Amino acid sequence: MATSDFWQRVSASVSSPQEWGDAPVTAPSGHMQGSAKVWMVVDGTTILISAVLVMLYELHSGSLTAAKQFWLGMLIQGRSTGIMLALLLGFAVSLIFTSRRLQLYTPTRISSILHEQKLSVQACLTSGLLLTGALYLIHAEVVPRVIVLVTVAIVTILLSLRRLFYRVLLYRNFERGVGVRNVLIVGSGPVAHALRHHVESIHHLGYVFKGFIDCSDPGSGYLSTSGDVVGTLDTLFLQARRYFVDEIFFTSPCERGVIANVLHQARLSGVDLRVVPDMYDGVAWENPIEYVGQFPTIPLHRGHVPEIGLILKRLLDVTLSSLILAVISPVLLAVAIAVKLDSPGPVLYISERIGMKGRVFRCFKFRTMVQDAEKRRADLMHLNERDGVLFKITDDPRITRLGRLLRRYSLDELPQFFNALRGDMSIVGPRPPIANEVREYKLSHLRRLDVKPGITGLWQVQARQDPSFDSYVSLDVTYIDTWSLWLDLKIILCTIGVIFAGTGS
Question: Which pTM value belongs to this model?
Fold first, then answer.
């Protein structure tokens, strides 16, 4: 489900502004985003692979023979291999530099597919012309021109297909509500309403409109409904926290100094900020204009996102989940049969949980309780041993005989590797809460939902038996603030020890 379903199920109250001040300070990102560097490496690798394949085919040389000739420095008769490598490196640098100048490494959502494909072909042809010009200047007649032309053609095709495939994958994720960016629009005039219509009608932008922020535009001619206006400038970042906002668009001029204060708060909270051009003299003079569909915007700040680390984390989730599911498939089958024989009811317990940015997803576990466990929960609330919004009873009468064994060794959570494979969860992260728990959250507790929930986490390995809700939230926030791949690996290793010790709930 999309994030909008979250607030239909959970009506968390907005508390005092002081809670917002507890948010971590995020340093502004003045350097190129990590994803751009990744795509540069991918482009360079594509060029190298294309050149090697074309050369081997054209010269009718096997890989062993080519390697021997390369080692002797005479891959092409009469011309040093070093010059060939220099030409190839020059072509790669030229293509990457041209692609960067054409903004092919900027956020994909901003431009259309056809525009991106046109720029991609333009970058490849421009770099190819520079390569042929270099060959002419150094009089490299022995280099077969067909190798150069076919290499440029294959690189053009591969890069265009790569960008097209990534686009299709990105758009499919947007349809599922994955990877979308929540936005607030400051102002309620004609430009604000037009921008709202724009981001809602062009789905490939990946934006989800969350509401207007009243900037006191008297006589604008637009009367927004109460459901459209979600707050004022005084509560801008409280609403940004409440709706998990990634970007704020300013479409209406404000008093002098207001935008500077908002920019400062955006840097502290890691929220991206954009303004319509020709506003706020002096603030946006040196910043480039980027188009969101047909709307020109000036990005004033980009929140730092460890994109390379997140890509590696996702790769780790997919790899480990696939391997674990393949290895334990006989165990899954045996447990499923045992659950079915132990007590009446379905094998799996499927519950709706609140995931990253309030997105509702279906979480899979082996059933460890009787069928009517949820109905009997209200009768057992007086036995609750946890504080805050958590619920736990040591000798819960709803748990089946097999369920106690499954919980002790955490075998009931094995199906959650399917959630990790789907991308709803990660292997390591905060525990996925249910809607009833989130309904009782304070505004500061919503920080737990800034990342994907995990099968295991810092709380599960350090304080699983601790009844304190504050400790529960504190450990999750500590994990978010200090996250690294090394921390994930340490938590995974600790989890293995907890499982074999049989200390699960």
Answer: 0.69
d(CA 430, CA 459) in angstroms, rounded, equals 8
| Cβ-based neighbours of 39, under 8 Å, separated by 6 or more | 104, 105
Amino acid letter, 217: D
Q: Do 454 and 430 form a contact (C-beta atoms < 8 A)?
A: yes
Return all residues near 225 (Cβ < 8 A) that are at least 6 apart.
Answer: none
d(CA 159, CA 162): 5
For the chain, counts of helices (H) and of strands (E): 18, 11
The two three-digit tokens of residue 359, written as one number: 């997105």
Q: Residues with Cβ < 8 Å from 51, sequence gap 6 or more?
A: 88, 147, 151
Q: According to DSSP H, which parts of 303-412 are helical?
A: 307-327, 329-342, 373-376, 401-408
Smallest Cα–Cα separation from 251: which of 222, 285, 282? 222
Mean of the pLDDT values across residues 92-117?
83
Q: Which residue type occupies 312? A: L
Quick one: which of 362, 464, 463 has its CA closest to 410?
A: 464
Q: How far apart are CA 191 and CA 206, in angstroms?
A: 20
Q: Using the structure block, give the residue that is written with the tokens 């990590």.
A: 34
What residue spans in the chain does CATH classification 3.40.50.720 cover? 180-303
List, for residues 244-291, the tens digit of each pLDDT value. Answer: 999 999 887 777 678 888 888 888 888 999 887 655 555 665 677 777
Measured CA to CA, the distance from residue 116 to residue 291 in angstroms comes to 13
Burial per residue of 230-265, b for 16 or more beta-carbon CB atoms within 10 angstroms, e otherwise: bbebebbbbbbbbbbbbbbbbbbbbeeebbeebbeb
Contact 6, 360 (CB under 8 A): yes
Is the per-residue pLDDT at 325 higher than 90?
yes
CA terminus-to-terminus distance, the chain = 29
Phi and psi, residue 390, nearest 5°:
-80, 155
Does the pLDDT at position 66 exceed 80?
no
Cβ atoms of 327 and 319 closer than 8 Å: no
Pick 180-303's CATH classification: 3.40.50.300, 3.30.1370.60, 3.40.50.720, 3.20.20.140.
3.40.50.720
